Structure formats: structure tokens, C-alpha cells
Task: structure prediction
Amino acid sequence: MDKKGIYLISGIVATVLFCIFSTELYEGMFTAPGFSDAMYNHSIYPLVATITAAMAWVGAAIYYYAINSVRFARWWHWLCVLAIVTILAPIVCYLVNSSIFDEENLSYAAEMVSFQGVNLLFAAALFVVASFSMRWWSSNCRHTPFPQ
Result:
């Protein structure tokens, strides 16, 4: 197996492990009485982790394969996509979380915002993992954000 394949498989394994251990990771970074129990009891941690991971990988794929432009192959362009994914993923997860809590008549608005602040960090980390996993096959952006 070549270096590119090892990077891809490593990124996929890291992402799958993140999704598997999402409850422990999220609760290790943020806990609140009542809120954490509701998140656990309604299996929202794995759902949020899956949404965040999917958005990070899709964002990286869009950058490296759909956009894939020489004019858009600078580190600050990559940083813009990172910022978009990092902001958009917690917003989507907040909306999903909110809808589930609304159905159950639970009110944890402040806790959900704080939790999504933690999710913002995971979204950024997953985007970096996805970027370094799939950038090698891009024809124009493979040197972004760092040269090989």
C-alpha cells in the first residue's frame, strides 16, 4: 500500500473511532446536569458525531474535488472552507438537537449552545483529518494547505 492509501485509511479509521467513542469524547469535554443525561438517553451524541463527521468529509471532498481550481488552491482558501464547515456543522447539529429536545419537551437552550461550542472544535479537527486523508488525489489542490 502506498502513502496515499495509508493516509486515507488512517483518516477513515480516526473518523470511525470518533463516531464510536463520541459519547465519551463529548462528555469528557462538556457535561451539564440533566442535559448530558438527556443527550445520552436519546442517543444524540452518536447522531451529532455522525453529522459532524459527514459534514467535515463532504466539505473536504467539495474543496478537493468539486472546486479543485488552481485559482482556489491557496491556504487561505482552504481556511475559508474550514471556517464554513466549522461553523455550519454545529449549527446543523444544534437544529437537530433542538428538534429532538422540542419533541420531548426538554429545554436546555444554554447547554446546547455550549455543547455546540465543543462540537465546533471536533468539526475543525475532523475537517483537518479529512483534508489530509483525501487531498492526495486532487489534481489542483493537493498542495493545500501545506506543500507535500
Q: What stands out?
A: The radius of gyration is 17 Å. The helical segments are 3-20, 22-29, 35-41, 44-67, 75-103, 109-134. The mean pLDDT is 94.
